[in-house]
Design goal:
303 residues; alpha/beta; Rossmann fold; Alpha-Beta Plaits; 2 domains; six-stranded mixed sheet; five-stranded antiparallel sheet; 11 helices; 36% helix; 28% strand
Length: 303
């Protein structure tokens, strides 16, 4: 597997507190990696270490297969980032703000028009940023991060504080970047709904530890599903199924099969019908992603 970002035992201590504790991140090339966890879980601290803004207390960081400690400058030339709120000069236009950064990065002037087109701000390029909506300012921040044609884009809570239309704008923009521009994207969020709709791979962090890392589809398999049966004599039906070796609970006037294998469900229904019970309803209950996350993070709030 070609990992653009790979950490081993990444740890950051602040006094006696471990803000990040032994984190092993693997981000494949071309993926949108959702870095998810409650506020205070260690996401921003991890991102700051990936960007060389703070030094790890322990562990290693490799980006583009290079050691960040030894080749920091050459690595960061190929990384774009937006951490917390974007920086801009409100009295300047969008174009002028980008020009100020372009001179520092020493990229061609034509790149300004390119990034404005990518983030769909071309029509307001000559408007002062102080008149921009929060969503437009976030897009300008992403445009600034894209000026150097980064191979890796790191976004820390890019939809924070945005209204629904602003969130949709940023979401559509991020989803386009890997397929249209070949970028790998790391996006951190405490918003489960955003990660679910954007990311191809997800890492979940809680209390400084990475507790899950895989696709969202794999995560869904952690769900404890149940099949509920509505029958005419719940208690007797429960006793009948238990007596025939089928694991079943009951409550609120319904039976709950914890084994959701099709063969088990069919067998339970067949036995009940065979013994003269009337079955009024069979329904599946699936855990939501929110329920799975709450289980994984020990009840820490993720929305």
């Amino acid at each position: 597997m070609n990992y653009i970002v790979e950490t081993q035992g990444l740890t950051k201590n602040f006094g006696k507190e471990k803000a990040v504790n032994g984190v092993d991140i693997r981000i494949p090339k071309g993926e949108i990696y959702g870095f998810l966890g409650p506020n205070g879980a260690g996401k921003t601290t991890t991102i700051r270490m990936l960007l060389g803004l703070i030094k790890p207390s322990a562990g290693n960081i490799h980006i583009f297969h290079k050691d960040l400690r030894k080749e920091r400058i050459s690595i960061l030339k190929k990384v774009g980032s937006l951490v917390e709120n974007p920086s801009y000069y409100p009295h300047l236009t969008a174009y002028e703000n980008l020009e100020a950064v372009r001179k520092i990065l020493q990229v061609p002037k034509a790149r300004i028009d390119e990034v404005l087109e990518i983030v769909r701000l071309s029509d307001v390029a000559n408007k002062k940023v102080k008149g921009f909506s929060l969503g437009m300012k976030q897009r300008l921040g992403i445009a600034t991060a894209l000026l150097s044609k980064p191979e890796l884009l790191i976004l820390d809570e890019p939809t924070n504080g945005l209204d629904p239309s602003g969130i949709i704008e940023i979401r559509h923009l991020i989803k386009r970047l890997p397929s249209e521009y070949g970028m790998t994207v790391l996006i951190s969020s405490h918003l489960l709904s955003e990660i679910d709709q954007i990311a191809t791979t997800v890492g979940i962090v809680a209390k400084g530890r990475l507790i899950f890392q895989d696709s969202i589809e794999v995560m869904r398999k952690h769900a404890k599903q149940k099949i509920w049966l509505k029958v005419n004599d719940t208690e007797q039906a429960w006793r009948t199924l238990l007596g025939k070796g089928i694991q079943v609970d009951y409550g609120e006037g319904m039976l709950a099969l914890t084994n959701t294998d099709d063969a088990c469900i069919a067998e339970a229904v067949r036995l009940l019908v065979q013994d003269g019970f009337s079955i009024y309803r069979v329904e599946e209950e699936k855990q939501s992603l929110e329920d799975i996350f709450l289980q994984m993070t020990g009840g820490n709030e993720i929305v």
